[in-house]
């Protein structure tokens, strides 16, 4: 089987896939579930319950009228004991619904289906939206929005993302080995929604067992418009733009999205969740999480309820040494936590725990740039991180934007390879945020100006009418 890849850039860090051969285990539900009302890219939800209410598993407890949003559901049954701001893995304090588990595991009534074929694309998208499905690769973008491209955008290919290029993480690998039929069905559902004629499941070559199994299942299911392709094992092969370039040789334009080149890329875990929403009527109340690192006594892949605090996971699995670093996500793009009292959310693909050795992973003191161009050679977006970093330090937003800072995918490769230990990714993130903030301010000023302009034009028109009538 041919192996595809992209260029330029990319690296191959130590994979550390310690849990790749460990099947999923269902993790017990927590005594207290903390469910943030915003676990997705987009508008926050408004609570649909009050303190003191009894809720069932799968009950919708937060929603929004905004287009770019996704509702959240109760993940345990019991009483709502608080609705308050709680710290999330993103580092922000988010209004959250706190539920005391009664351990009855009482579900809302579900209505499973035998097939999706009799549903229209609009009905399928509505179900996906109502069941709170978001991208489970980490970005947590609302899936229903992703599957509803603007008019004029034609989608011809759905790519199932099974690359999972982050070190340590193995949850996607296990999904492909344990739920291949659900992943294939998820692609077929998305193909019906978008009208795409071709489905591809891209799997890194270090997961050949998953690729072979998916190929066999595609044959067993009699599917002739979905194929499996191998991609080179390197980071960040699983980035949407990198995967599209590797598999289809199409380049997403600067500032553009995959739909601009006729593609929707979906994490394999998301495809599984879509199938469960459509056929089992199951909201997104749990997800697969890789728990790994040298400080956890029982690493593995677990099906964990959303809202489960990290402290409960640690108490259940145990530590074998003093915990010095807790990361939600992978070591390249994940976020180090300041407390163990943060909950699993929809975007939590991994929880990594490290001991004393983690001090070596901490940001080190910078030294002057030696002009080696390692960051330029390794950047998967073909950017010049060192120059964007210089612009960021000078707060020169115009130059940073000219250097395409907004195209940075924040993969962390530039910081990883820098021999001077420059905080490149961190500074590029900062300047990106500043550029986006400035653009919002400018857009608001322009909108206010246009409003004032229209108001004055109306006043002038009224004055002319009065003068004419007078």
Describe, in short, the structure shown.
[4Fe-4S] cluster 1 binds at residues 369, 372, 375, 418. With 470 residues, the protein is α/β, with parallel strands linked by helices. Helix content is 32%, strand content 19%.
Describe what you observe in this structure:
The protein is an alpha/beta fold. It folds into 3 domains: 278 residues, 3-Layer(aba) Sandwich (Rossmann fold); 76 residues, Ubiquitin-like (UB roll); 105 residues, no CATH class. It is 32% helix and 19% strand. The protein has 13 helices and 18 strands. The strands form 4 sheets. The protein has a 6-stranded mixed β-sheet with strand order 2-15-14-18-16-17, with helices on one face. A 5-stranded parallel β-sheet has the order 1-12-11-10-13, sandwiched between helices. α1 crosses α4, α4 crosses α7 and α10 crosses α13. The protein is globular and about 85 Å long. It starts with a strand and ends with a helix. The model has no long low-confidence stretch (mean pLDDT 95).
């Amino acid at each position: 089987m041919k192996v595809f890849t992209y260029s330029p850039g990319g690296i191959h860090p130590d994979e550390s896939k310690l849990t790749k051969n460990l099947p999923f285990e269902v993790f017990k539900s927590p005594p207290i579930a903390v469910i943030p009302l915003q676990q997705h890219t987009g508008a926050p939800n408004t609570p649909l319950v009050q303190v003191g209410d009894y809720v069932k598993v799968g009950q919708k407890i937060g929603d929004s009228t905004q287009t770019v949003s996704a509702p959240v559901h109760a993940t345990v049954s019991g009483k709502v004991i608080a609705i308050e701001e709680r710290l999330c893995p993103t580092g922000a304090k988010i209004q959250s619904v706190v539920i005391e588990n009664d351990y009855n595991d009482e579900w809302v009534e579900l209505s499973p289906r035998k097939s999706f074929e009799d549903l229209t694309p609009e009905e399928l998208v509505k179900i996906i939206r109502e069941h709170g499905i978001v991208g489970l690769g980490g970005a947590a973008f609302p899936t229903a929005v992703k599957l509803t491209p603007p008019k004029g955008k034609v989608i011809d290919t759905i790519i199932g993302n099974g690359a999972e290029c982050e070190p340590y993480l193995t949850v996607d690998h296990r999904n492909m080995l344990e739920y291949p039929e659900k992943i294939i069905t998820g692609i077929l559902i998305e193909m019906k929604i978008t009208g795409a004629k071709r489905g591809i499941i891209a799997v890194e070559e270090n997961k050949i067992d998953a690729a072979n199994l998916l190929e066999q299942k595609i044959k067993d299911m009699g599917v002739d418009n979905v194929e499996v392709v191998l991609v080179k094992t390197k980071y960040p092969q699983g980035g949407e733009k990198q995967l599209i370039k590797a598999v289809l040789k199409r380049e997403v334009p600067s500032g553009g999205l995959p739909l601009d080149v006729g593609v929707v890329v979906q994490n394999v875990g998301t495809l599984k969740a879509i199938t469960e929403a459509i056929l089992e009527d199951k909201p997104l109340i749990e997800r697969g999480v890789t728990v790994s690192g040298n400080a956890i006594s029982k690493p593995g892949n677990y099906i964990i309820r959303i809202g489960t605090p990290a402290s409960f996971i640690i108490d259940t699995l145990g530590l074998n040494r003093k915990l010095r670093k807790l990361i939600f996500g992978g070591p390249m793009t994940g976020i180090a936590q300041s407390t163990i009292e943060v909950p699993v959310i929809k975007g939590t693909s991994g929880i990594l725990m490290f001991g004393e050795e983690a001090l070596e992973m901490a940001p080190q003191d910078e030294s002057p740039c030696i002009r080696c161009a390692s960051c330029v050679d390794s950047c998967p977006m073909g950017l010049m991180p060192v120059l964007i970093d210089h612009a960021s330090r000078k707060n020169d937003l115009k130059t940073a934007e000219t250097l395409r800072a907004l195209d940075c995918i924040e993969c962390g490769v530039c910081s990883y390879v820098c021999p001077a230990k420059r905080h490149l990714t961190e500074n590029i993130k900062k300047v990106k945020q500043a550029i986006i903030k400035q653009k919002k301010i400018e857009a608001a000023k322009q909108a206010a100006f246009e409003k004032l302009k229209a108001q004055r034009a109306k006043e002038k028109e009224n004055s002319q009418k009065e003068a004419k009538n007078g």
